[in-house]
Design brief:
Blueprint (H helix, E strand, L loop, with lengths): L2 H9 L3 E5 L6 H7 L9 H18 L8 E6 L1 H5 L1 E2 L2 E2 H9 L2 E5 L11 E2 L7 H10 L4 E8 L4 H20 L3 E8 L6 H16 L8 E6 L8 H5 L3 E7 L5 H9 L5 E4 L1 H4 L8 H19 L2
Parallel strand pairs: 1-2, 1-11, 2-5, 5-7, 7-8, 8-9, 9-10, 10-11
Antiparallel strand pairs: 3-4, 6-7
Length: about 300
């Protein structure tokens, strides 16, 4: 793994931009950006449009390594170019932003109040490709919808099992066991989750660290033990459906946790904006998320 990138993620101020909407979430992301379903046909056109949106964000002067530490890409973005250079290479060389790859294949059906990840039979090949394209780490998401002990254990066990496969390939995994913000007993689910995460982390060598991406908790600083854990490179927060204002407010109350926002980052951006309007809107979003990540 790249030690410059490792040290940057461990010590520097900033946040992680999540630009990894893939198949199922892309039409919604485009609609929020002002591009209706009727303006394209087929996946290829759809992914070309989302790449144009992401390129517009990444090449904006507002999107820079002073405030953005890393960016999470999906495979289609990694495989495309920005200004004639592979997207991951461009991020690091032009912006000093660490490139991370979403590797999961979506969620399995509900069982025991959770959705674990679908199998990833081609993961080793994807990790090898990622390394050749300049990727530093990975991200993979599961969802917890209820405070069900068996379900939470299954989610965390699977995340660390796959995480160790990723570490063995020379990349740093982001473990993402999202607690649904509509979970009826969210605080109880978060208590179960923290206990399971600590159990796995206490078996994880500190020279093989992981990152954690977690829903902003009901109890402020609930995850402080994870922030301080020697086997955790960084704890980052997902916005999870909260507005940017609510996300930033919650984030600012959780010391040592930084943002990894997706929809909350792109809130207010539109294909119809002029470059000046687009850059000003993005700059405002980045400034607010950066400030909330500095607490």
């Amino acid at each position: 793994m790249n030690t410059d990138q490792l040290e940057r993620l461990r010590h520097d101020a900033g946040f992680i931009a999540a630009l990894d909407q893939s198949g199922g979430s892309t039409p919604k992301a485009l609609r929020l950006y002002g591009i209706e379903d009727s303006s394209y046909s087929g996946d290829e056109q759809m992914f070309d449009l989302i790449h144009q949106m992401r390129t517009r964000m990444i090449t904006s002067p507002a999107f820079n390594g002073e405030r953005v530490l890393a960016a999470i890409l999906f495979e289609g973005t990694m495989d495309r170019e920005i200004e004639g250079v592979g997207s991951a290479i461009y991020l690091w060389n032009a912006k000093r932003i660490v490139p991370i790859l979403k590797v999961d294949k979506g969620l399995a059906d509900d069982a025991n109040g959770v959705q674990v990840m679908k199998p990833m039979p081609d993961l080793d090949a994807l990790l090898a490709k990622g390394r050749t394209k300049g990727i530093f780490g990975t991200k993979m998401r599961s969802v917890i919808k209820d405070a069900n002990a068996a379900g939470v254990t299954a989610v965390v066990k699977q995340q660390f099992e796959v995480g160790r496969q990723i570490l063995a390939a020379g990349l740093v995994p982001i473990i993402e066991p999202e607690v649904d913000i509509h979970c009826p007993n969210k605080a109880a689910a978060e208590a179960l989750l923290k206990a399971e995460l600590l159990d796995e982390l206490n078996r994880q060598p500190s020279d093989q660290p992981v990152m954690l991406k977690l829903t902003l908790p009901e109890i402020d600083n609930h995850y402080s033990e994870l922030v301080k854990h020697p086997s955790v490179l960084r704890v980052v927060a997902l916005s999870g459906g909260y507005s940017r204002e609510e996300s930033n407010s919650r984030l600012s109350r959780n010391k040592g946790v930084i943002a990894s926002f997706s929809r909350a980052l792109t809130e207010g951006l539109s294909a119809q904006q002029s470059e000046a309007e687009f850059n000003a809107t993005l700059d405002g979003a980045i400034a607010g998320i950066y400030a909330a990540s500095r607490t």
